[in-house]
Amino acid sequence: MNKKIKKIFCSLLISFLILIFIYNQNLFRKFYNVLDINYEDRISKASGFCSDESIGYLNYIKKKFNFNFNPMVINYEDSVPDSNWSIYDANLKNDSKHKILLNYPEELSLKFYSHKNNFYTKDTVKYAEGISEIYFDLKVPSLYFNSNLMIYRKDFGTNKKEIIYNKPFKELVKNKQKITLPKNIIKINNIYKPIFLEIKNLEKDKINNIKVVLKNQFDLNKFKILDSYGNCYYIR
User: Which helix (H) or strand (E) holds 178?
Assistant: First the structure.
């Protein structure tokens, strides 16, 4: 094989290897996406339009309403970092009357399961303001309660209780019956501390779980909805 043929062969081999690499890495598609899809669409694909950080919705709202202030951004999804950075402008004043709610839940609730001498929830919740109602998932048709219903926060490493709710509870409760609790406005957020539920002299073996429904700190019925998409809202 002379030098000229060898040179051509090497060039073809290198070209073939480069094409295989490009195909495997999908570089043409990625490059096309950068050119064809604008910045806002790429952000929405990466962080969600109205899910997770919801950066897409925030950018959409800012562009639509041309803010001359910084609205309050409230994200109910606690597994993602703060989303406010995407539209915050240090040169503008904050206006908490204007709020953007992201991942707004249909219901805020905590489900408690048997844990040693009481009940414990692994659920987390933000922006809850007071307890609305309680449901008992029973293994029997009904159960009579004659004690105090206590809900409290507690660090696993200490015995100190931070009482959230503690009132008499004397009821004949049917399975999954809605029980409305007395008016209360104590915030029950539990991102950092576990929450326990305790009822003295309770027949725990007759209960599957206890669901506590919470009042939303930002009740949509109390605000004017200026824009919405899915479970994301711009309100005032």
Answer: none
Question: Which CATH number do you get for residue 127?
Answer: 2.60.120
Q: Are 163 and 152 in contact (CB under 8 A)?
A: yes
Say how many domains are in the chain.
3
User: Of the candidates 193, 187, 114, 212, which has an alpha carbon nearest to the alpha carbon of residue 154?
Assistant: 193
Rounded Cα distance between 108 and 100, Å, is 18
Q: pTM for the full model? A: 0.75
Query: What is d(CA 83, CA 53) in angstroms, rounded to the nearest whole number?
Result: 6
Alpha-helical runs (H) found in the chain: 3-25, 27-36, 39-47, 55-65
For residue range 129-166, what is the model confidence (pLDDT) as tens digits?
A: 888 999 999 999 999 999 999 999 887 667 788 888 99
Q: Tell me: do 140 and 195 sit in the same domain.
A: yes
Give every strand in the sheet of 108-115, ordered side by side.
Answer: 161-174, 142-154, 195-199, 118-121, 108-115, 207-216, 128-138, 179-180
